[in-house]
Every structure is written in structure tokens, then in C-alpha cells.
Amino acid sequence: MALRNNRLTNEEYDEHFSDIHPPFETHNAALVEANRCLFCYDAPCTKSCPTSINVPKFIKQITTENLKGAAYTIFSANIMGGGCSKVCPVEKLCEGACVYNLMEEAPIPIAKLQRYATERAIHEKWPLFTRQASNGKKVAVIGAGPAGLSCAHALSREGVEVTIYEKEGKGGGLMTYGIAAYKVTPQFCQEEVDYITSLGGIHVLYNMQLGKDVLLETLQQEYDAVYLAFGVGMARQLAISGEQLNGVVDAIRFIYEIRTKGYPEVPVGESVAVIGLGMTAIDAATQAMRLGAKEVTLVYRRTEAEMPCTAAELNIAKLDGCNIIWLAAPKEIVGENGHVKTLVCEVMRLDERKLPVGTGELISLNVDMVIKATGQLPYTMAAPKIDNEHGRVLINEHAATNLPGVFAGGDCVNGGKEVVDAVQAGKEGAKAILKYLFREVE
Amino acid sequence: MADLSTNFLGIKSPNPFWLASAPPTDKQVNVLRAFEAGWGGVVWKTLGSQVKNVSSRYSSVDYNGYRIMGLNNIELISDRPLDINLKEIKECIRLFPDRAMIVSLMADNNRESWHELIKQVEDTGAHGLELNFGCPHGMTERGMGAAVGQDPEIAKMVVEWVMEAAHIPVITKLTPNVHSVVPTGRAAVAGGTHALSLINTIQSVTGVDLDTFVPNPNVGGKSTFGGYCGPAVKPIALKFLTTISQDPLTSKVPVSGIGGISTWRDAVEFMLLGATSLQVCTAAMRYGFRIIEDLCEGLNNWMDEKGFATIYDFIGKSVPTLTHWEELDINYHIVANINQDKCIHCGLCYISCEDGSHQAISLSYGKPYNTYAIKEDECVGCNLCKLVCPVDNCITMKEQRHGDEYLNWKEFQRRGLPLNDH
Ligand SMILES: Cc1cc2nc3c(=O)[nH]c(=O)nc-3n(C[C@H](O)[C@H](O)[C@H](O)COP(=O)(O)OP(=O)(O)OC[C@H]3O[C@@H](n4cnc5c(N)ncnc54)[C@H](O)[C@@H]3O)c2cc1C
Ligand SMILES: Cc1cc2nc3c(=O)[nH]c(=O)nc-3n(C[C@H](O)[C@H](O)[C@H](O)COP(=O)(O)O)c2cc1C
Ligand code: SF4
Ligand code: SF4
Ligand code: SF4
């Protein structure tokens, strides 16, 4: 059986990919939750947000109907506070630390309140920030993803002229091309990028790839500093036989197509195996199901205790009807007429160090599609002279790489975390760059 | 089952809860529904000479998502024709003979008007009269309502006129728009009133509309001071009630407590400070008559728990515990204690003590949770931390007396003991 697209009606697609975390319907609904917030001192929610948003402050501002103030509080810590409110794994960040958890009560829905405050700001294009007068400095940023945009915004606020080089035709990075479609819409991503760049002083050059259309050496000469925020891109290979068969796809590619082509265009199997249990695996599995696959099975080498995704994410997959096979590692993909037919896995057990070891026992799954989601490899070939470790760009505590004036942050440094971490990295990068730029002058 | 029945100057009602003179008591349809719901009595919306009302009439103070913490109104006394009111009062008494029917009055400022009105009301069979000396708006300009209540001499004179004509018990309702309610209370008692009730509403401005710049309520672009009532005024009402209960003269007459009563707990507090019956307005306007069920059941359960068979077993019990500051024991001292097992690390105690009290709480940094502990030597026992802590019984106050014996301020000064020693 070959992969098939256009399995569902338009209504079914719409329903399957509508907002997984719906916003507050009314102002009152938001107020009820906002008023529950205790306004903690030195709040644990803030400490657990990588961008340190002053959560109690913005929530209080919602209660006083100072929505502009709330949006400013959020954006001044996290310029992607709008997108983050939809995609952050809050159960392990801010909401996971909310003191209500310690009272065995539901935490404050921080992300939902954050969305409430920021969505209006973005839709109505509130001009909350102004730029300092230009200081004549020019910085190039590679990648218009969360890290790049956050760095660019922070730099531009201080009067730096920023040029972003982006290899795709749209900004937003994995926010636009990677994150599950039921979390953010392409339209929102576009609005968010426009909102960020509406500050001025940020010039985005699309379809410009570093290493191909422009070289790092050139940028180093033309700009006062360069910030690398090109993310991670290549899927890690399984290195088993059958990997090149038709029907074996890389999760990032699969998701990218969902985000760019429109749901009916994306082919999906009848019976799909997804390898891995990180966030990407969950996203791929649930979206395959939502595109109309009959059966989706997540295959993971270890047990629930070691899985990289959160319990909340696993629940999304379970609620979507995905199966999970624990303690199984892919061994071979068997094909027929060049197309995937069977995924053979070895049953594993955990040794004393909790590492999976093979037991020799094999199980076979009849599938017509295999999605590989075993992690991405950061790539540095765009900038080959940069020191790296397994492809991750190496930086010091000032976000600086080994090349003078070249800084880096986000997924390309940390190997792939969350949007909110990338935004924070961009902020820190901007701070380091400003220091570098102005210390040099003195 | 405790006995909730009340005998207020011979006015009997199956429970002490009366609806205060206000919109819920200004028509037969309302009052009958209230009686069906179980209210012990009503004070019929004040009758007087014809008036005309404006709109809007109400505005409120909301707080942290709680609506109508305080209510403000600029309504006048009954604006319905007197003969209809009288006919309806009579009908209500006929249908519910076991409930208290008190009629509130505000006659024009002369003896004849009062006499005439009293006669008409007594003809209905009403059980008692309540003199409205409190309405703070509209009527004061004509020398009535609060204008009477604010001047003990006039109040006494009006009470005397009333007593010349009245054959049924007379309750004088006091205004809180005074420095102390005691002088008018005493004047009313001296004038012969059988009982007192308090408080009427407090003059107020609830807020200003930030778009129109006109304070609330807005009557075609202008506003005026309105009468404040509801939960927000309870502490003020209790204070005034206590002064009446403590005064040797006014404490001789029964008192009907009014002002912010919303729950049976509020009711018990009023009774402990001397009220024999309770009047409710805002809570009934806000939630409807059905609140009577919990008022009665809650009161009953509490009385059973405490072993009180009738309401007379506890009325006024708390009055003697309110004394002057000078009488308080200076040697009594408490310090706060945090139960670390219950603490949720919100830091609210810390910041309020740090900024608002005596810097007596220490913080040890943690991620994400800090640990907070009391510095006992610095703690002045003010209670602030305990008040702000969102967790029940997490912060408690431990007794740590400064000395065994009782020592009050007067004695402290007499002995010349050192000030500011901590
Ligand atoms: C499938 C998937 C699901 C995810 N789901 C979530 C989620 O639900 N919540 C969450 O918080 N995070 C999620 N993440 C992680 C999150 O998307 C990333 O951590 C975040 O986008 C990293 O931001 P970045 O700016 O570092 O990199 P990216 O977002 O990857 O942005 C890099 C940008 O650089 C551009 N670029 C790359 N190479 C070049 C070049 N040579 N020249 C010019 N431009 C270049 C890219 O086109 C891209 O626009 C998910 C990631 C994946 C893969
Ligand atoms: C809309 C409204 C109208 C009122 N009208 C009268 C009145 O006509 N006569 C009177 O004595 N008190 C009147 N009051 C005062 C109430 O009887 C009562 O004293 C006051 O509201 C305090 O009680 P509460 O806090 O339970 O509302 C009125 C109060 C309100 C809110
Ligand atoms: S950015 Fe994310 S982690 Fe931070 S407060 Fe907002 S929702 Fe929570
Ligand atoms: S931890 Fe919870 S209650 Fe405390 S400030 Fe944060 S959201 Fe509010
Ligand atoms: S206010 Fe209460 S819960 Fe909060 S830190 Fe203090 S003791 Fe703990």
C-alpha cells in the first residue's frame, strides 16, 4: 500500500487541527483565573520561565484591566510571548512551579492568560516599544527563528541596525515550520514576525542561506558583529537497513510539509510507526493520526520513566488514539517493491544504568510508513570554521564563538530545546553583542 | 434543634431575620414571596409624603472579582401611593399572621403629619413602627431623614411626637453619618422610643467612571452622594452597635442590627454584640430571598454546637470583651510561627512583613521555592503575616508573654516603665 493524501474532508481537517488549547472566551473568564493568582513574592513561576517573565505582575495587570501594561511586561522579557503562550510546555515550566500545585489545586493557567494579554497586542499592533536613535552599528543575524528574532529585536531597541539572513521564504523558524499545526497557525506566526519587526531597524532578507548565498567571512567584514541562530536541521539517521525505502520519512520534513503545503496535500500511511518519544515524535504521531492514518504506533527504546516528552504531551498522543510500544528498538525496515512493509524491532530491557540493551527477541509491525523522530543533528556546515561539538556550536559565557565578533545561540547551541529557551538565548546574545560593540569603541 | 424565635418588644417572629426597609419590602408581591421563603419579618419600605425617584440609582464597589462588596444607592423612600401601600400591608399581615410586620415611617417635619401617618399605619394591624432618621439623600434637604438623625434635639422632639400617638412598639433607626450614634440614640431613648435599629446607609462616592469622568451612579451626567451598604459596611455597623450596647442608657432598649449582614456568621456577630433582631437588605437584593434558608440553618447548627437553646442565651455576650486600649494587657505577647509542611512558599508573608511591618521573616533562596522562617526576636506579633498567608492554619501565633502578671498602660505609666524597649 502506498502512502495516500487527502484522506479527510475539509471539515475534518479543520476540526483535527483547531487550537488544542483554546483561549479564554470572555474577559470575565480571564478575570476569574487572574484573580486566583496570589501575586507571589519572588515568584516560582517567574523563576521557572527561561525568559523570567514577571508572571504575577502581568497577571495582576490583567485584573486591573491594564492589558497594555500586561503585554508590555510579557514582551519586555520575551518578545515571542505570544507564540510561547501557545507552545510552551508549561507543565514543566511556569505552571509546573505555581504554588497552587503544592496545595493540590489547579495551577494558574499562566500560558492562557499570557495569550489573552498578547494576542490582542499582536492583532491590534500595539506599538509598545520604541527604538533608541541609531548608533551606527550594524549586526547580521543568521536565521529568523525565535533566537534570531529575539536577538534582532533587543539589538534594534538599542539603536543597532540589524539584517537577518533567512534561508526560507518566511520567518519564525521552527515556530512556522516545525511546531504542531494544532498549536499555532501559519497566520499567527506571520503576524508575530510582523509584530516583532514592526519595531523598525530590522531588515529580513529571505531566501538567503549562509554558506550558499552569503559567506560568514563576508558578513564579518560588512558588519560589526554576527549572531548565528540557524537552529538544528538534520534528522539523526537510524543507521539500519531499509532506511532509504519509500515511506520512511524524517519527522521534521513531515511536519514541515504539514505546515507549508496544506493538510490534504500531505501523504500519510494507513499504519504508521513513529520512532522516538520526544516532542517531535509526539507531534509527528498525533498529526499523522489527525491527517487520517488508521493506526499510529510510537516505538521507544526505554520506559515511561525515561521518556523525553512530558506526561502532558504523552497524553495528547494517547487521547488521539496512538499506541505505544515501550522497550523496543528498530532493527530493520523490510520493504516490498521498494516500499516499507514491516518494521522489525528488538525487545529491550534496561540495565543497571537504565540504558537499553537488546534481549534478542524480535517483534514485527506491519506498517506502510515509518517516521523517524530520534532527534536532530545540529549542523554547522554553514559556518565551517566555528568550533563545535557533535555539530553544536560552542560558545563561552558571553555567547561568543571562537571567531571574533561572531556570537551564537538557540537550538544550534543547545542542540534543540524549546522556543522559550531560544528567545532567552537571543536576549543574552544581544546583551553580549552590545557589550562587545560598545566596549570596543571605548 | 435550637429555638430561633424572637420576641422583640412583643413583636414575635419565627426567626430573627427581617428584611430591612428597602426595595425588597416595598410591595405585597415581594413581601409575600419573602414570607414564603421563610423570612421572620419585614420592615416595610419607608412611607411618607410622595417622592419621585431618578435613574440610575445604584452603583457598587467591586473588589478582586467579587461584585458588590459595597452597594450605594440614591433611592428615596417609597414612591408608591400611600393608600396602596397601606392596603398591601394589611393583606400581608392577614396572609402571614405569624411574621413580624414593622412599617418604616418618615413623615413631614411636623407633629400633625406624624400623628396622621401613625394612625393610618396602625389601622393596618402592623406590629411596630420604625422611624427613619437615616436616609442620607434627597430627604435631608427637606430637613428629614438624616437631618433628624444628626441632631439629637430634633430627634428627641420627633420621637416625642411619635410617642404621643403610637400604640404599638416604636423602633428608632439611626444614621451612621455622625461621629457617634450614641447622642442620637440617647435622645431617642429619652424621647421614649422602645427600641433602636442601626445602621442606615453611609454617605459615599463609590467611584468615578474613567471614561465619562462622572462619579457613579450617573444621572444624566451628574451624580450625588449615595448611601453605602453591603458587606463593606459591616465593620462600621458593628462598631456603632457596640457603642449602643455599651452605653448605660441606650443598652436598656433592644436593638435591631443592620449593615452588611450576608451570612449566618455575620448575624451571630451582630447578636454577640447586642442585636436582638437582624435586618438584611443588600444580601437579599443581590441573591434574592432564598438566602434565608442558610441564614436559619447556619444559625441553628451553630447554636446547637455551642449548646445555646434560644437566641437570648448569647445576645450581647461579646460586649464586655470590648474595652479601651488603656485596659489591654501589655505583657501579653505573641510571635508568629510558620508550619513548614503547610507552607507553599508564596512569599506573601515575607514581603508584607518586610515592607509593611518589622522585617521579622527571613528568606533563604531556592529555585524555584524559597524558604521562609520567622525571626522570633524581631516579631512584634502584629498578625500581618498570618492575615496574608493564603494557606489555612499555616501561620499561627504562639503566646510568649513578656511577664506573668496583667499590666495595662495606665499601670505601666504609673510605674514609669521604660518605653521602646524592643
Ligand atoms: C517537531 C518539533 C516540534 C517542536 N515543538 C515545540 C513546542 O511545542 N514548543 C516549544 O517550545 N518548542 C518546540 N520545538 C522546539 C522549538 O521549535 C525550537 O527550540 C526553536 O524554534 C529554536 O529556535 P531557533 O531560533 O534556535 O531555531 P529555529 O527555529 O530552527 O530557527 C532557525 C532559523 O534559521 C534558518 N536557517 C537555518 N540555516 C540557515 C542558513 N544556513 N542560512 C540562513 N538561515 C538559516 C532556518 O530556516 C530557521 O528559520 C519543537 C521542535 C520541533 C523540531
Ligand atoms: C436601594 C435601597 C433603598 C433603601 N431604602 C431605605 C428606606 O426607604 N428606608 C430605610 O430606612 N432604609 C433604607 N435603606 C437602607 C437599608 O434598610 C439598610 O439600612 C442598609 O441598606 C444597610 O443594610 P445592608 O447592608 O444589609 O444593605 C435602603 C437601602 C437600599 C440599598
Ligand atoms: S514564556 Fe512560557 S514558560 Fe515563560 S511564563 Fe510564558 S508560558 Fe510560561
Ligand atoms: S506561582 Fe502561581 S499563584 Fe504564585 S504568582 Fe505564580 S501564578 Fe500566581
Ligand atoms: S504566606 Fe504562608 S504559604 Fe506563603 S510563604 Fe508565608 S507562610 Fe508560606
Automatic annotation (TrEMBL), chain A:
SUPFAM superfamilies: alpha-helical ferredoxin, Nucleotide-binding domain. InterPro entries: 4Fe4S_Fe-S-bd (IPR017896), DPD_II (IPR028261), FAD/NAD-bd_sf (IPR036188), FAD/NAD-binding_dom (IPR023753), Helical_ferredxn (IPR009051). PANTHER family: GLUTAMATE SYNTHASE [NADPH] SMALL CHAIN, GLUTAMATE SYNTHASE [NADPH] SMALL CHAIN-RELATED. It holds the Pfam family Pyr_redox_2. One of its GO terms (molecular function) is iron-sulfur cluster binding. It comes from the Bacteria. Residues 28-61 form the 4Fe-4S ferredoxin-type domain. This is Glutamate synthase (NADPH/NADH) small chain.
UniProtKB/TrEMBL annotation, chain B:
Keywords: Iron, Iron-sulfur, Metal-binding, Oxidoreductase. Residues 334-363, 370-400 form the 4Fe-4S ferredoxin-type domain. It comes from the Bacteria. Signal peptide: none annotated. The keyword Oxidoreductase applies. Involved in pyrimidine base degradation. Catalyzes physiologically the reduction of uracil to 5,6-dihydrouracil (DHU) by using NADH as a specific cosubstrate. It also catalyzes the reverse reaction and the reduction of thymine to 5,6-dihydrothymine (DHT). Heterotetramer of 2 PreA and 2 PreT subunits. NCBIfam families: PRK08318.1 (NF006183). This is dihydrouracil dehydrogenase (NAD(+)). It comes from Chitinophaga sancti.
